[in-house]
Design brief:
single chain, two-stranded antiparallel ribbon, 61 residues
């Protein structure tokens, strides 16, 4: 076992969350348990996109 496995450490770059980018450029104000749930909720025909972003550091917001 490595030290990171023993402590439960997870690389923050791997901490992704699924969001929906609305047509107006804002993120939907809700959370999704999975990409499939977000895709079912999003309306791509109206310009919405399902994205995976790094929610820990917020470096891609």
């Amino acid at each position: 076992m490595t030290a990171s496995t023993e402590t439960g450490w997870v690389d923050p770059r791997d901490e992704l969350e699924v969001v929906v980018l609305l047509a107006n450029g804002r993120l939907a104000g809700r959370t999704f348990a999975s990409r499939a749930e977000a895709e079912a909720w999003a309306r791509p025909d109206e310009g919405e996109q399902v994205l995976e972003i790094n929610g820990v550091c917020g470096c891609d917001r």
